[in-house]
Amino acid sequence: MIKDDFFKTLASPWLWGIVLLGAMLPMVLSSYYTHILTIALVYVALASAWNIVGGMSGQISLAHSLFIGTGAMLSAALLVKLGINMWAGLVIAAATAGLLGAIIAWIDFRFQLGHLSFVLITLAFAEMASIVVEGWDFLGGASGLLLPQDTGNFLDFQFGGGRGAFWVMLGLATIIVLVNVAILNSPLGYYLRTIRDNEKAAQAIGVNVLRQKTTAMVISAVLTSIVGTAYVRYLTFADPYLLASPVITIEIVLFATVGGLGRAYGPALGALLLVPLGEVLRGKLGGAVPGLHYFIYGIVVIVVILATPSGLLPLFERLFWRRSRMLPKI
Amino acid sequence: MSITRRTFGIGTTSLVLGTVAAPWVRRASAEAAAIKIGVINSMSGGLSAYAQEGQPALEYMIKKINDGGGIKSKGGAKIQLIQADDTSQPARTATEARRLITEEKVQLLTGTILSAQMLALTPVLDELKVPTLSIWAGGAHSNYMFSLGYPYDRGYAQTMHDFIVSLRDNKFPIKTAVMSYSNYEAGQQVNSFLVPKLKASGIEIIGEAPLDTRAQDQTSAMIRIRSLKPDIVTGLVTPRDGILLHQARFNLNYHGSIFVGGTGGYSDLSLWKDLGPEVGKAVLTRNLFAMTGFSAGAKIDSMQKVVTELRDVAKLDRIGQGAIQYAQAARVLQRVLEASSSLESDALLDAFKKFDMPFGDPDLYVAKPKGLQFADDRLLKDGSAMMVQWLPDQGQEVVFPKEFAQAAPRART
Question: What is the ipTM score, two decimals?
Fold first, then answer.
């Protein structure tokens, strides 16, 4: 049973007010800033989906590029190479990602992997996926795939680029953050946190570790894959070096960690702050002094992590919400 | 470290204000009636070598054009370059293009823009309709994209094929080939065009030895080549893979095949530095021919002059293919702007389509026997390049095509 806190969040005028306000931004922002916010929302969605595994159950998965790649490259290949509608591609890719997630969770349980071993195994999966994508013509190989132009035909999974893509990403990000809130307020969330804090103790008190871990991984993988499909539709170019590279997972982990690992809104906060910061810094400084934006970005990240190791969300709560009102008490 | 609401406020306000103020600080020194050209380069990241060599040449040539009176048909308007760094990531090329077009209001775009970046840029250019000159892309999908790069088919693949056939005609015994190429986007593309061409010319492909671009050693690829012992080993190879391949060849002391490849992995001047003179002399000067768009010894007056100018006047310390390609881009942009009836997108597009720089033109720096024009696919009509052989003194001799050739190809120089 999901606790009342979730339904209170769902009925919160704050939440829907922020979403509504966000939805109006493309009306006043230029195409460039709308694009930056769209990318930020992509990462909000990805970091929040990763949080279900990495934050709540404490499994630092680096395999999420595998799920993003599945969602992006497989659905793109099905469309470009076989002419399969991208809605169907989304479902096929999400099912495939879910299956891969279940396999990874089973391997983790079957071989009783420790934290470090789990990280390395998932990294190996991600690297293998990257090599497969770059070497398999059907998925576009190293050249990637160029999708047909987005003319806004909804039935063909097209949203008209720009504003349409922004709204889709806003919707996806909102849903995935709400899934986080729901899980944190459900038995699954409690099981996952118990497993994260002490797996053996969780097992001893009757938590079905395999089932809970698998459930978390499958939910996370499916959501990640769906975001991957929407992202590649927005980009139009399915770039294997972006969408199937383990580097994207590192970015997701960074955003989630800086925002607040294991919190419902933490990864979203991290992505909403760091993605625009990185993009704007590069835009303003990248051309003048190459690499300077990386330096400043790195300094900001280091300062944030040193100043508030548990993430920005707890800091914001301390600074601005003396009594946490809209955030779930988790 | 303890953060209060006050210190947090001061810190974030400074960061935001600094970021927002930066463009105004920069704009204060910009000229009034300039023609804005956005330059998207990979100034950082894995592909930064292209721009780091080429960008100083581009800046020098644009300064020269501005000092010479700017764009005369536009009232002497000066060209203002607005730089952007895509950090070698195609998705960011698209982001930067959007910023340059919508925020900086550039009239044209140019920059390294390799093929993956070109693909990522395509939807942005189709949407915002700004003519773009890529310096290196091997394809052009958007109607607004033109490229000075070698087309995969009639550029890289055709040149290597034609040279291999010419070797065979020159009594080199060539019947079999192994395709050994850097296993990345451009390497795969060129390979897909080269294989059918070689087969059509009666050369049997007896195997492939693709080079893993992440590998730290290419000995396994070289062992495979040695086991197949083809007459020719050919493909597009990056500088890094080339260094590893040549090292492996040296270590295995393999000289049983002729290596014909392009571009950086066979022709880059830095190969000697990375391999060292002993290894370089043993493998580069023996049974090896390299495809390149630039060679200091090529019999092209305008190329020789620009090399001298970049070295003696601009004081550039690294003048290779990258520098020449960027210098050429500056001249193409100048001619397009001069010929264009206005700075509107359609007029600029029309000027690109009608662009013609014949062979012998003093501003033609690259080796194009048929001059520089864009075909209907917006790539160069004459996509051909030169083939060179290395000399023991680390110099090069052009051996193909015959228009620019300094010497006949030899198995050992």
Answer: 0.84
